[in-house]
Design brief:
Layout: E1 9-22, E2 25-38, E3 42-46, H1 53-59, E4 68-79, E5 82-85, H2 91-97, E6 102-105, H3 109-112, H4 119-129, H5 136-149, H6 155-158, H7 168-180, E7 186-190, H8 198-215, E8 218-223, H9 226-232, E9 235-240, E10 243-249, H10 250-255, H11 260-267, H12 307-311, E11 317-320, E12 323-325
Bound molecules: iron/sulfur cluster.
């Protein structure tokens, strides 16, 4: 999938299928997923809760949690210019990549930090695990620098603190420090600010933007918030019920959305200038993915659905350079 702005691929996801084998049945969480993240870009994946964003991000490092399984597809990672399929690497090879070349920032910093160890210890251990520093002394010096870089107040003191001694925003800054500690090539941020208040959220998004720019990182940002997409991203993939339904440069998505679900997401974005009454939530809920609707998965909620939509699944087609849509009516 080409991008007019970025040229060199870092990760290519090809024809990915991820299923969860539960007692209730097989949850078809991700199907027919293909996209590329290019070096140096800020790529977003947006959609409602439960649409498969986090599962996709975990598939990139082959860490889909049980009872999930990647049943088909490839995740091609360009390592020193050479393509390797992440899904075919051994655990040992994957350990070299995870945390060092591909790092995660998760939504809930409490779950990412060990309550039994200080912030400093956890940053240093991540670096020692990947041989980024030679010893503890060098590690602690570097950890203070990292905390200073993420604007942690009083980093020499905070490094001695346990997670419960920090505020939510400070804990997330510590998690970002751990993510950055080995200077990864790809930083995956899964709803990194949604558990924080609006002011801290804005500060952390600004921080992420600066770090990506200054260190030349590639960012894969997962969010349910179109406002965050507008502020942060170069390109965006819109996910619905495990399928990418639209993928385009961010300006194009906001100016010229083609898929009814994307249009619905945009109508549900609060506009500070508009009357709150004019917000239009998308009617209905995402389907049960044990029994996904036939044809287009969005058809039970789509105001434009026709007979063909209920029978046949639309393919993802390129409607203009770099703009892909999965809808039978994309030309209308
Ligand atoms: Fe709506 Fe049909 Fe397009 Fe699906 S394919 S989004 S149901 S118009």
């Amino acid at each position: 999938m080409s991008s007019p702005q970025f040229r060199e691929p870092l990760i290519e996801v090809k024809d990915l299928y991820v299923y969860f084998y539960t007692y209730a049945g097989v949850v078809k969480a991700i199907e027919d997923m293909t996209f590329t993240i290019y070096k140096g870009e800020k790529f977003c994946m947006v959609g409602e809760t439960g649409c498969g964003k986090s599962v996709t991000s975990r598939a990139l490092a082959n860490i889909v949690p049980s009872p999930g399984r990647i049943v088909k597809g490839k995740v091609i990672y360009y390592r020193d210019g050479k393509p390797v399929n992440i899904l075919e690497l051994s655990e040992e090879q994957l350990r070299e990549i995870r945390g060092k070349e591909i790092a995660y920032i998760v939504q809930d910093p409490s779950s990412a930090l060990d309550p039994l160890y200080t912030i400093g210890y956890q940053i240093v251990e991540t670096m020692i695990d990947h041989y980024t520093v030679r010893d503890q002394k060098e590690g602690y010096k570097r950890a203070v620098e990292l905390l200073r870089e993420v604007l942690m107040p009083d980093p020499e003191q905070r490094i001695k603190n346990y997670p419960h001694e920090l505020s939510g925003g400070q804990r997330q800054r510590a998690v970002i420090s751990i993510g950055l500690s080995n200077m990864p090539r790809l930083l995956i941020a899964d709803e990194p600010t949604s558990s924080l208040d609006v002011t801290v959220q804005a500060q952390l998004l600004e921080l992420l933007r600066r770090l990506v720019r200054e260190h030349g990182l590639t960012l894969f940002l997962i969010t349910h918030d179109m406002g965050v997409v507008a502020e942060m991203c170069d390109r965006v993939a819109v996910l619905y019920a495990g399928n990418i339904v639209e993928l385009a440069p961010v300006d194009e998505i906001f100016k010229n959305p083609k898929h009814p679900y994307t249009m619905g997401l945009l109508r549900a974005v609060p506009n500070p200038q508009a009357d709150i009454e004019k917000l239009e939530p998308i009617p209905g809920t995402i389907p049960n993915l044990i029994y996904p609707p036939p044809g287009c998965r969005f058809h039970p909620r789509c105001p434009f659905a026709r007979d063909v939509c209920k029978r046949e699944k639309p393919p993802l087609v390129e409607v203009s350079p770099g703009h892909y849509v999965r809808c039978w009516l994309h030309a209308e």
